[in-house]
Amino acid sequence: MKLRSSNLVFALFTLLAGTAHATDYYSPRTAALGGAGKAGPLGTDSIYLAPAMTSFLKGYSGSVSYFGYDGPNDSEPHGRVFHMSAHDGSNEMFQAGVGYTRRADAVLVHFGASKALTQELGVGIGGKRFFNHAVLDSLNQANLSVVYFPLDWLQSTLLIDNLIENTASKRWNLYREVSLGTKFNIQKILLIYADPQYTPNAPGKKFGYQVGAELPLFSDLYARFGINRDVIQPHLAAYGRGVGWGAGWIFPKISLDFAMYRTIAPVRSSGKVFSATVSF
User: Fold this and answer.
1) pLDDT for position 155
2) Which is more confidently placed, 190 or 2?
3) Would you give the end-to-end CA distance of the chain in angstroms?
4) Closest Cα partner for 36 from 205, 259, 279, 278?
5) Residue 21 and residue 260: Cα distance in Å, rounded?
6) Residue 243 backbone dihedrals phi, psi, to 5 degrees
7) Close Cβ partners of 162 (under 8 Å, ≥ 6 residues apart)
8) 3-state DSSP of 125-159
């Protein structure tokens, strides 16, 4: 009876995940920070975390990554995610990026464009298209972001995600979210990220958070740790909580990142994320 109940729960969860997809993609750095980092994305992460930040990431970047996850037993979800993205921060008129994510059941395409209004203020817009293979369903979404650097040690981002909230978007678990991202630079020896969010029409709790820390071990090596609660778990397409940790090795032209990411709710899962990013 216990085995049958476990299989029933997994079947119901799989059905939900097959028709609902998360807004964000977690790169190794984002996963290690527990999903935090909207006020300080690096490389192509700005496409997903805060398109407005792209204007402050000069030059070109391209990234590829792989995310594999499973659970402690056969009753837990398992799968793989392949991803590639690129952005151009060199254009004088505006800066933009695009990302492609492929899962077993869906393809997700994200793009973003931004403009720096001053050296401390920038705005950005983002668009997303989701296509579900299983039910031949698709959906378009959009977001709006603003970044502001009020102090040398403080960066902030306001992100309004999933602007188009309707019956179709709710089937994909895409509810309108308002997030405030903050980055605190403590004497250049510790970076702290705190991203509270409010989802007014989400099922369950309306408030959630993502908090992470980044510690420079050397000039090119970083250690990271983060947690989150009551936010979307991207690979599960459901609200829950998780924890991540990892490291990044940043060279002048290339960076290598790795993270372990574990969900505690709505179900248990453990994932490994790898990426390589080229900048020039």
Assistant:
1) 97
2) 190
3) 58
4) 259
5) 21
6) -145, 145
7) 23, 141, 142, 143, 169, 174, 175, 176, 177
8) EEEEEEEECCCCEEEEEEEEEEEEEEECCEEEEEE
Among residues 118, 61, 127, the alpha carbon closest in space to that of 90 is found at 61
Is the bond into 200 cis (omega within 30 degrees of 0)? Answer: no
Q: Is the pLDDT of residue 123 over 80?
A: yes
Residue 124, both tokens: 């950005």
| Domains defined along the chain, listed by start | 2-279 (2.40.160.60)
User: Is residue 10 very low, low, confident or very high in pLDDT (cuts 50, 70, 90)?
Assistant: very low
* HSE of 52, CA atoms in CB hemisphere, 13 A: 26
pLDDT in tens, 162-201: 999 988 888 778 899 999 999 999 998 999 999 999 999 9
